[in-house]
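Quick one, T. Sequence first:
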Amino acid sequence: MIIHHLEETNSILNKFISEIRDVTIQKDSLRFRRNIERIGEVLGYELSKNLSYSSSNIETPLGTKNIQLPNSNIVLCSILRAGLPLHQGLLNYFDDAENAFISAYRHPQNNDATFKIVVEYFASPSIEGKTLLLADPMLATGQSLVAVYQGMKKHGTPKEIHVVCVIGSTAGIEFIKNHFPKNTHLWIAAIDDKLNDKGYIVPGLGDAGDLAFGAKL
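Structure tokens:
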């Protein structure tokens, strides 16, 4: 897996990350969603540098200009519900992408800290020979991403895979390395070292879905 850790280079991205982590600022759900969206835009911009391009002539009112334009056939897939603001940020830049959505959630086992990932809703076009962008804001244990990837295989084999995350754990990254193709790209804004005993990222930011859309039962 090829890892692109954007926080290693200082940029305006630091501000957006700090605000989604901040316990006071993140209480504003509108600002939280918008910051996740802006992080998605930054990740999308960096990702775009690795896509394939071809030459095209553009007619202007005063002449012709040759320019390199992306020609990747993109399918953008997000994990509901937390992935929606990140999806929108990526879609702002890849506005001609096809879209896929999948639900994946943790189902507790035996009333303890263990859980399994349940995948229920799935709507996707064919991904055969296409560029798959798989977006999930929080890469904690990595089990959700792997479950989603396994579920998507019935829709074809993509030409290339780009996993897009906001915050991830080192353990989660190591886990998905063993389940995705070696040439998969991981685009991630920030990496934290720890998971707690419930499998949540520390210091992380809390529950991204709840912060964006409100607490669930």
